[in-house]
Amino acid sequence: MRRSTAPRPHKRDGIWYLVRRVPKEFASFDRRGLVRISTGVAVADDPRGVRARDAVRSLGAELETYWRKLGDGQSAEAALRFEAARKRARSFGLAYRTNEELAAGPLDELIARMKLLLDRNAIDNAADVAAVMGGARRPALRLSGLLKEFEAIEQQNLLAMSPNQIKKWRNPKKRAIANLIGVIGDKEIARMTREDAVAFREWWQKRVVGGGLDIGTANKDIGHISKMLRVVDLTHQLKLEPVFHHLRLSGAVAAQRAAFSEQFVQEKILAEGALDGLNDEARHLVYLIADTGLRLSEAANLTAETIHLDQEIPHVQVRPNGRRLKTDHSARDIPLVGCALDAMKLHPNGFPRYRDKAASLSALVNKVLGKKKLLPTSEHSLYSLRHTFEDRLTAVEAPEKVTASLMGHKWIRPKYGAGPSLMQKHEWLQKIAFKPPKG
C-alpha cells in the first residue's frame, strides 16, 4: 500500500477533509470505496490548508493502520504464540530463532539445540520443541508497531523517568512514525527499501524548502526512525538493511545562544510589577532561575526534601527525585542568594503547580514576557536566564570548576574529591546576586 506522496486535504462544505480510495487489497474488508474523514478544520480558519495538511497526514496514518489491522486479523494471535515461544526459549537459556533462521545458521547450533531437547527429555513436548527449534513464525512488525516494540526493548531506560519525561521521550518518535507512514504507508519494517527512505527524505526536503520548516526537525525525524529500526534489528537479529544511513539533510545551523544582559534582567525583568501577569509560583520560579541558573525542570521539581533553608548556607539540591536528570553532572547543590533566596523562603515545599510540568511553565512565562516586550529578540526566552547566569559568572572571573559545578556541566578534567564546597560557591554567587524586586 505504497503512497508516493502524502495525502492532500480536500475542501467540502467549508471543511478540510481527508479523501482516500480504499486500496484494492483491502476492498473485501472495507466496502466503502471512497473514504471521507473530516479534519475538523474550517477552510475559513485555515485557507492555505497548513494545519489541514498535518491533520490529514495523521488521519491518513490512522486509516492505513486500520486497513492493515483488518487484513491481519490473525496477527494478534500469531504474536501471542511467538511471544510464548520466545519466553520458553529463554527458560532454556536460549535466544529464540525461527526454524528458517536456524536452518540458515551454523549446523553446530542446530545440533546443540537438538541435544538440549534430548538431554532434558523434552523431545516429546510440542511447546518445548517449538521454542527451541523455532516452530513459531516471527510476526511481521509494521511501522505502526515499531514504537511499542522499541519501548518494550528500552523499558529499563524509562524506569527513572517521570510521566512527563516519558511523554516527551515518546511523542517525537510517535510523530516521526506517523510522518513516515503518511509518506510510504504502514509497511512491514523488513520490507522497507532505500527508495522508501529517500522518499521520506525528499518529502522533508519539500517541507523545509516550501514550508520554511527547520532542517533540524527533519533530521530528528530521520534520526528517531533510524535508531528505532537499528535497536529492534539488533535485539531480534532481523538483518535489516540500514536504509536510512547517511540520509540526514545538510545545512542545519546550530541555534544561536541568547542571553539577557545583566542590566536588562535587573532593570526590566526584575523591576517592580514587571511580572504581575504571572501567578505567584511562576513569578517566583523566574526569580529562582535568575540567581541559580537552574534548568526549568530542575527548578520546578524541587521539593521539601531538596530545599534547605535552615542551613548555615541556605541551598537547594538538584537530585533525580522521581525523574531522570539531564546528565550525570546535573546533580549538584546550589547556594541561595538574592532573588533566589527570597523566592524560596516563600515556597519552602517547592512549586507543586509546575512539578513535572516545566513545559507549561515555559509556555506561560514566555507568553507573558513576550506580551510585556521583555524578550529583546526572537532568540530570547525564559531559558536565556540560565545563559545570563553563566555569563555573569564569567564576568566576575569565577573559576571554571566553580562555574561547571553551579551549571551542572562536565568539568574538563577528571573528577577528584567532592568539588567546590557550598561556601566557595556561595562566595562567588554573592558577587553576582540580583537585587530582589520591591514588594
From TrEMBL:
InterPro entries: DNA_brk_join_enz, Integrase-like_cat_sf, Integrase_catalytic. Keywords: DNA recombination. Residues 255-429 form the Tyr recombinase domain. The keyword Acetylation does not apply. It comes from the Bacteria. SUPFAM superfamilies: DNA breaking-rejoining enzymes. This is Integrase. It comes from Mesorhizobium humile.
